[in-house]
Amino acid sequence: MQAAQYIGNKQFSIIETSPIPPKDDEVRINVGFVGICGTDMHIYHGVMDARVNPPHTIGHEISGTVAEVGKNVSGFSVGERVVVRPLDYCGDCPACHAGHSHVCHNLKFMGIDTPGAFQNSWTVKARTLHKLPANVDLQQGALIEPLAVACHDISRARVTAGEHVVVLGGGPIGQLVALVAKSLGAHVLISEPNENRRQFAAQYGIDTINPITDDIAEFVKQWSDQKGADAVFEVSGVQPAVDAMVQVAAVRGRICMVAIHSQKPQVDLFQFFWKELELLGARVYEHADFEMAVDLVASGKVDLKPFITSISKLSDIGDAFASMDNNPIGMKALVSCEQQ
Ligand SMILES: [Zn+2]
Ligand SMILES: [Zn+2]
């Protein structure tokens, strides 16, 4: 079998290696497709070398087929199609004991802190698996992980039917947040400067605004019949969006911080007093978010196919990363990791 290793400085090498037999509580997966995430792009650019310690196999947005099961594993059998919730938690810290293992004090993110999925075969703990129903193919399966991120954001912000939801930033996660909100019956607006991304949202019937040329505060007022947004998602990571998020929020609006800001943004705390706003953090996902993501795709409420910008072979993984660099508005590049 083959594995791709990130070796630093925007380079990958393909190595010949052997499948790892599963331990008692593990499952070995024949990898189907793996998506390239924004985090993978950060790794590729070398900014996370201290954490990933190259050479290292990365990749965490994966679908595949169960190939071997450890002897204590129940509920999964060879041939079943699955996705992986790539969180390795300790099970014995205050966060884990409180039922928040996704923000475990000792959390290891699989594919960053431990070996990942850009290889023909990946061996993982059975507790990380979720089943794919027959009508969800492996290509869409590779997008369940980012969709689960969006499901977690929506659940943190407690979005319900009929509410007005503003998403600041129309990259892959922003678009998915908007789609999950829409699937729940919310009215959704994406604020995004890039025209292609606005068109991408429009094909799903989502309202859009260009925050560079339009006054977003004024627009949201009109759009929401003077009320403002019940829930706001900051998915852009830029200061103007942090300014906008408090302006567009309704009285008692919930603001969910999704983006990872590289610098500490300035937040207008006065508006938190004035409108009794609520600010919510959101990090990765829980078991229920993955189940919700699978259900949304299986039921046809969210169609992930338009997100797939390209599909490359594992041997061409370097080109796949380079093409995301050259086409930063592309939504999702997949790498086919099935053994040739
Ligand atoms: Zn990701
Ligand atoms: Zn823990």
UniProtKB/TrEMBL annotation:
Superkingdom assignment: Bacteria
Entry keyword Oxidoreductase: yes
Species assigned in the record: Shewanella gaetbuli
Keyword vocabulary terms for this entry: Metal-binding, Oxidoreductase, Zinc
Family from the record: Belongs to the zinc-containing alcohol dehydrogenase family.
Record protein name field: Alcohol dehydrogenase catalytic domain-containing protein
InterPro entries listed in its UniProt record: ADH-like_C (IPR013149), ADH-like_N (IPR013154), ADH_Zn_CS (IPR002328), ER (IPR020843), GroES-like_sf (IPR011032), NAD(P)-bd_dom_sf (IPR036291)
Cofactors: Zn(2+)
UniProt xrefs under PANTHER family: (R,R)-BUTANEDIOL DEHYDROGENASE-RELATED, SORBITOL DEHYDROGENASE
Record-level Gene Ontology MF annotations: oxidoreductase activity, acting on the CH-OH group of donors, NAD or NADP as acceptor; zinc ion binding
Residue ranges of coiled coil: none
Domain Enoyl reductase (ER), chain residue ranges per copy: 8-335
